[in-house]
Design goal:
alpha/beta, Rossmann fold, UDP-N-acetylmuramoyl-L-alanine:D-glutamate ligase, Protein-Tyrosine Phosphatase, Chain A, 4 domains, six-stranded parallel beta sheet, six-stranded mixed beta sheet, 19 helices, globular
Length: about 525
């Protein structure tokens, strides 16, 4: 589509890439772009900064204005904008064309080798597994869509022979025009009620998912998880050949835990087999796949407890599969904002499988009440926020236990999105690791810190003698600098900043380095400095 000279309103800049990429893509092609978002500028600072070098004709933040929707040629609607939005309907009533970031991409993408993946749970991991297998087969592959990466900026580099894997949400599918070139391969992982705060009812949500199956061309392929009772009934919707998941014994050992991930792998294998990928490449791609951030991501092991970040589990169903992924005793951290989900089955699973659960956030009291009714003798606790929930799980757990963040809810009551929630969880676990290390090694006193530093310095001295790399010598110098600071009567924030800068600048830090950094930060905080 030639957009040069067109007046375009980008509705919803957002804090992910979609709005930013759409605004940049259109402005660079000569469109007169207006960006409007209900969020104020301070909440969109990162996205605004990403467009600093782009000629945006008009910014309207903290509000929408009717003129941006009635007196324009094209509106790019953010997927989060709910159906029936009055500004979208205003544009429609004035004959303004509506589109989306994903539709812009599909309209301009030079390759027809596009795989679309949808489902209520597992679509991100399945998409990434498909991309890993295609790459293992030697095919240039691009991964994007709802998984968080817009591919609009990559369009000039995507060749006709390349492959594209798109994770597609119900929001994206619901608004996608029938006139655009839809994916040639469709994969559906499962379907259960979700996002009922956006869709008016489950039928509307299901119809959005089914659109992907219905639009696959006859020469393409559809992969349905026919072990899911709902999706098994969709076979007749497809005009293309339909495949089910491959057998479990055809899947190699995986690096990521859980039977649900083997199910995802079976679907990924079926999709790639349908486009001619060899069994060896499928095996190779799955063996090297190490998972995605915030999807049953192993964070740390501290004092015998293993911590997992499953922040992407924003539905009861996805949290249930996480609970089923472990044989060890589980301490579950769950809660957040409410999307209108039914938590009855989730509560039963918590009562059956979790050793204990700590619920927090907007849905915390409701979830705790449901779980207590089903497991009156179980350990069910309330917490105000995620940090409090983690502290309680740590205090109640024992070596050999799993502490699992799998919220079963959206994050918007306390966080910007699931990624921020997962990142905060990992930071909290890191602080817990630091505290535990200090107590375990006797580093909580000034003399303990000095003793540990002298020990680290001796280690780095031996390393410098044995290895010609500068790593040992750098370690000696930093330990010496730290020891000198300890004995100074007057220490400034700049002294601390300089030491920390040297620590974090070390390329490929190894044994001893992390311990020295913990010591430095703890000592600085004891002295009242920022670290």
């Amino acid at each position: 589509m030639d957009v040069a000279g067109l007046r375009v309103t980008v509705m919803g800049l957002g804090r992910f890439q979609g709005g930013v990429s759409a605004a940049r893509y259109l402005a660079q092609r000569g469109a007169i772009v207006a960006v409007t978002d209900l969020a104020p500028a301070e909440k969109l600072a990162e996205s605004i900064a990403a467009l600093a070098d782009v000629p945006i004709a008009r910014w309207r933040l903290g509000e929408h204005c009717e003129g941006d929707f009635s007196d324009t040629d094209l509106v790019v609607v953010n997927p989060a904008v709910k159906p029936g939005n009055r500004f979208v309907e205003l544009a429609r009533s004035h004959g303004v064309r509506l589109t989306s970031e994903i539709e812009l991409f599909l309209a301009e993408c030079s390759t027809g080798n596009v795989v679309g993946v949808t489902g209520s749970n597992g679509k991100s991991t399945t998409s990434a597994m498909i991309a890993a297998i295609l790459s293992a087969d030697g095919r240039k592959t691009w991964l994007g869509g709802n998984i968080g990466a817009s591919l609009l900026d990559e369009l000039p580099r995507i060749a006709p022979s390349d492959w594209v894997v798109l994770e597609l949400s119900s929001f994206q599918l619901a608004r996608l025009s029938i006139d655009v070139r839809w994916p040639r391969i469709a994969v559906v992982t499962n379907c259960s009620p979700n996002h009922l705060d956006w869709h008016p009812d489950y039928d509307d949500y299901r119809r959005a998912k089914q659109r992907l199956v219905q639009r696959v061309p006859a020469e393409g392929a559809t992969v349905l998880n026919d072990e899911d009772g709902e999706v098994a009934t969709w076979r007749d919707l497809s005009h293309a050949k339909v495949f089910g998941p491959v057998a479990d014994d055809e899947i190699p050992p995986l690096r990521i835990p859980g039977g649900h991930n083997r199910q995802n792998a079976r679907l990924a294998a079926a999709a790639t087999r349908a486009v001619g990928v060899s069994p060896c490449a499928i095996d190779r791609g799955l063996r090297v796949f190490s998972g995605l951030p915030h999807r049953l991501e192993r964070v740390a092991e501290i004092a015998g407890r293993t911590f997992y970040n499953d922040s992407l589990a924003t539905t009861p169903e996805s949290a249930i599969v996480a609970l089923r992924a472990f044989d060890q005793p589980i301490w579950l951290l769950a809660g957040g904002s409410d999307k209108g989900a039914n938590f009855a089955e989730f509560a039963r699973e918590v009562a059956t499988r979790a050793h204990g659960a700590i619920f927090y956030g907007q849905t915390g009291p409701r979830l705790a009440a449901l779980a207590r009714a089903l497991a009156p003798c179980g350990t069910i606790k309330d917490a105000s926020a995620l940090n409090d929930a983690l502290r309680r799980a740590w205090e109640l757990s024992s070596p050999g236990d799993v502490i699992l963040l799998s919220p079963a809810c959206a994050s918007f009551d306390q966080f910007t999105n699931f990624a921020e929630r997962g990142t905060v969880f990992k930071q909290l676990v890191g602080e817990l690791h630091e505290t535990e290390s200090l107590h375990k090694n006797g580093w909580s006193t000034e003399s303990g810190i000095q003793h540990a530093l002298e020990k680290a310095k001796r280690y780095f001295e031996r390393l410098a003698q044995q290895n010609p790399s500068p790593h040992g010598g750098n370690g000696v110098a930093i330990c010496q600098q730290f020891l000198e600071l300890q004995h100074r009567q007057a220490v400034s924030q700049s002294d601390v900043d300089n030491l920390l800068a040297r620590l974090v600048a070390e390329p490929s830090p190894g044994t001893g380095w992390y311990e020295v950094e913990i010591l430095c930060r703890h000592w600085a905080r004891q002295r009242g400095f920022e670290a």
